[in-house]
Fold this protein.
Amino acid sequence: MRFDKLYLAGIASVLPEVVETEWAVKEGLLDPDVREASGILSVAVAGDVPAPDMAAAAAAAAVRRSGRAPGEFAALLHSSAHFQGPDGWSAQHYVLRKALDVPIPALEVRQGCLGMLASLELAAHRLVADPSRPAVLLTAADNFGTPMVDRWRASGLFLLADGAAAAVVASDGGFARVLAAGSLSNPEMEEFNRGGEVLFPPPVTVGRPLNLEARRQFWRDQWAQGVLPPMGNLGELVSAVAERTLDEAGVGMDRIRRVVHIGFSRGPLEDTFLEPLGIGADRGVWEFTRRTGHAGAADPVSGLEYLLDTGQVAAGDHVMLIGAAPGAEVTCAVLEITGPHAGR
């Protein structure tokens, strides 16, 4: 979908100190061959810092940089991929109280690693439907350092990192104009992400940790027995939604200076994003994500902030934000940097 008046007015991220993957190998937490193949040098680890507190810190910085007053916000959309706090509790209202403390709707967007990009689309619709308030606050945060996740072995696609990000989406101006954004899904692929897991009782409620790699192995074993896995390819979704969004934005891929992708390991990154987009790692943010790991839904905003803070994109440049999540679904946004970013 093309937008005429949609902007990023302020962004911020909170990434804790990193832990070297070489240390994880020495401690027996990560296989050395996996480390070598992944290309990941370090992973951000938050210790016992609650994810909602990281989200609130990022939100406060993004709001301050945007120059918007709390009364200008129409809603807050909070995203996460892992548990945020007590069961039955509302992390999004905690972040709202800490960041804005105004009586507006606060919603949780459960879209996995696509949380912030999906929220960008939702924010655009909200601002069009009700122009009385010109801003929506997006937040995302995760701390995967719980007994229910092994950040080093949970997936063969990435190493899980902790962190948070926030963005102020506005209809009345900002440092970047959102030219277009959109999503594309292949729901047949949901079975691939489910593997052999039962739906009830939910595995986590009976103490079974998250193990995405075991679900992938389930389909490898099924295939070896002659049972075909669900058909679908994330790279095809990436290529299709990127082409459509670029067309809506009126921008060719040759005009995209940098692509902000999620923090996959090197092989999956090339297969899922770089090759389908026809770009090399130097046009992405590999030099950033290989030092942070995959911080869930926060990746697109933290990657964009990295490019801005290091001066690798500036006014007049076009940037693509793109990510994927189980489902399977891919979301893409095309931005034009229009002015200076109030960075750190």
